[in-house]
Sequence to fold (370 residues):
Amino acid sequence: MFEILFWASALIMAYSFAGYPVLIGMLSSIRPRPVKKGSFTPPVTVIVIAKDEEKNIGAKIENLLGMDYPPRKMKIIVASDASVDRTEDIVRSFSERGVALFRADESKGKPAILNMLIPEIDDEFVVLSDARQKWNKESLRMMMSNFTDPDVGAVSGELVIENEDEGTFTEGVAFYWRYEKYLRKCEAAYDSTCGTTGAIYAIRRELFGKIPEDTLLDDFVIPMNVVKRGKRVVFEESAVAFDHPADSSRHEMWRKIRTLSGNYQAYVRFPWLFLPWKNRVVFQFVSHKALRLAVPFLMLALFFANACLLDRDIYAVFFGMQVVFYLLALLSVRLKTRLLSPIKAFVFLNVIAFIALPVYLSGRQKVTWK
Fold:
C-alpha cells in the first residue's frame, strides 16, 4: 500500500509541475488557435479599485493618463472602498482631466464594487486594475487589439515583479511568475487560460455577471464565467503591469494565502469547474489549478510513504533525496544565492497552499481590505 501511495504521489506531482507544461506546450504548437488581432481602439472604461492608497493612487492615475491610447476614448474611474486617508482627495484633484471618483460609503470589498459599477458602464469594454501597479504605455492598446477576434471575451496582461532582492522570498515568487507566464501563454494559444492577472485584465462588459460579494478571487471567477459563456480568455504578454515585492516575506505570505484561499472557495462554490460538459477547459483547469492545490498534501503523503519503505535500499535513497531537498529549502532562507531560488519558491508556495486550507475553512479570510 505504501509503495502505491509513494508512486501515485510522485507521478501526480511530476505531471503537475513537469508533465503538464510539456504537454500543453506541445498541444499549443500542434493545434494552435491564433487570435485574430487587429488595430482596435474602442471606447473603454478603466476601473481602479482603491482602499487607503494615498501613497500610490496619484502615480497610478498619471500612469493611466499617459497610456498610448486616444484620450477621448478612455474613461478612468477610481472606486474607493470607503478610504479614510487622502485617496479620495487626490482622485478629485484629477477631475478636470476626466478622472471620476466612485465612493462606497462603507467598506464592501472589490466584488461588491464591481457588481455595482460594471452594469452601469456604457462602454463595451472594461479594464480592471489595482492602485499599486504601473503599466507600460502600450498595455491598453495591445489588450484591445485582441478583441477584434469575436471569440475573445477577456484578455489578461502580464505581471512582472521588479527590483527583487537576491536571496529573499520574493525572488522565488518572481521565478514562480515566470513559470506561470509560460503556462498562460500556452493555454491561451491552445484555447483559454484559467484566470487572469488581477492587476491588468480586460473584459467585454456584456460577459460580466455579478459574482458573490464574498468572492476572494475575482480575477479567477470572472474569467472562468467568460469561458462558461463560450468565449476565450487570452494572454497578452505585451501588456505589462509592474509590481514591487512585498515589504516582507510575511506580507507576501498573506498575499498568497488570500489567493489560495480564494481558489479553495471557488472550487467548493462552483463544482461545474470539474465537469467536462460544462467547462470546456477542464483539462487545463484540473492540470494547472486543481492539482496545484493538491501538491502540498501529496508532498506529505510522499514523505510519509517513503519513511515506511526504508527497509529497501532504493527507497532509502529516495528518502535521503527528500531530506536533502527540504534542508536546501531551509538553507536558502539564510544563503543569499539565486541558485536555490527554485527550491525555495516550490517549498514556500506549497507551505502556503497547505496553510490556506484551514484559513479558508475557518472563514478568517475576508474580502475587505485590512
Observations:
- Strands lie at 44-50, 74-80, 99-103, 125-130, 134-135, 152-161, 201-204, 232-243.
